[in-house]
Amino acid sequence: MSRPGRPGPGPVGAASVRAVLGLLALVLVALPFYAVWRYETHRRAVTPQAAPPVGARPVAGPPHGAGPGPAADAGAGATPPVVLAYHDIAPHGRSRYTVTPEAFDAQLAALARAGYRSLSTEEFVRYLDGGDPPARRSVYLTFDDGTHGLWVHADRILAKYRMRAAAFLITGSVGRHRPYYLSWQEIGRMTGTGRWDFEDHTHALHRRAAVDAAGTRQSVLSHRLWLPGDRRPEREDEYRARVAGDLDTSLAEFARHGLPRPRLFAYPFSEASEPVDSRTSKGILRHELAGRFAAALTNTTDRPLPAGRRAGAAGEVRRLEITRATDLRAFRAGLELWTATAPGDRPEPLGDTVGWEHIGAKAPRGPGVFTGRGPYPGRTGFAAASYRPLASADWTDYTLDVTVDRLREATNNVGIVVRDGSLAPVTVALSHSYVSLFAGTGDRRAEVARRTLHDNTVHRVRVTVRGDRTEVVVDGRFRIDWTEPRATGGNGRGGLALNIRNADALGEWPRFVSLRVASLPASAAEAGREAEAEGR
Q1: Domains of the chain with bracketed CATH
Q2: Nearest by Cα to 359 from 333, 326, 389, 318
């Protein structure tokens, strides 16, 4: 019975209480199921990490988030960074692009023991923009595609060696085809470690499709597509709109997920931007990329473009690709060939048995074809090779002193190329009775000067490269000076190459008796750099 003066709950009040109690009971019953659902969702989005391989002990070094370190680590003697290209890290996998955790661990251990420091994207881009190398020895570690092996395996190995890396994301694939690609949740965790930068690898153009009526399949980023309904390839405006739209969508995805705007782009399939195809609009593609990124990264280029001033001027950087087949010996050999040298570091290239890169798969190896030891391609013929084209890509301000013998009139000659691999190479063609200077390559190669020499089977040549100038002196008296307008910024930098020709089956091949390389004195080199900078 209710107390006098106090009404009971009534039918409406009782119903409300029952509704609240029922809702509370429903929440209590559903809460465990919700917690399980959230846990399962999280578990599917964030794969547990694997412990790093037990093997080499970590080598003490600066933390991955630290600056360049002591001044002694950079400055004089510092070399441009080597850019390494990986794809996936996993214990198993049939793809040649999947490197095992044990191999990756051994490679980072080798880098650490050799004193290499890994760079952030900011440091790497600052260097490409003209800054000094941030450390005496450095690497920029890159991973294409954004596979979940980076979170599961690579991240803990990077932490072990206090290194960092950059992952190039196909933003349209993030969170899809799990567990192959990373999820956005894993990317968020990787960002929080401070070990990872995230860069661009297109949104949905990492695929191949038909580019002609015959069904030839090529990269859809660097080729115009075949439109079967219209029986024609894309027009330039259609191609431009498709590429620009994909790049902008990708950048928007970075922003939507709170990631910094990418500074770098990696070509799909690690292909060059210049496939030999009539439907390629490389000018359009490069223009669209240059408007959004500091540089594009690839594993194949039409000329050597390791990280450096030449690559910075080109807006394109070539990387050293690491695959499952790259054992530790090959890894170290690749680093050695890619690490930049100064012109005076290897003063006698003819004594270097591994540094010559010959033209043609069946060409003779080593310098013997130039020094008279052979082997030769035949009784007559032609041979050519570049000297350490990756390590010498940024050579400037140097001299070559060359002696050649066994020259005979009209039957044989030699060529000495300076600024090799640049946009402004110069070839010194030397024969029994004349010296000619050729500028450029391919269809743009032209003779720009010629001097008649005293007939002789032996000639001595000094070639000086200083800024945009090339000076040639033969036998101490016959001189040619050439100024190349395209040799500006990094466009005129490059090392040396040799070629040799014999047209007489009964005669000897000509021979390089000696070849010595030296850096110019500091004062002359400074004048060369000032001349080079005027064209920037």
Answers
A1: 71-338 (3.20.20.370), 349-533 (2.60.120.560)
A2: 389
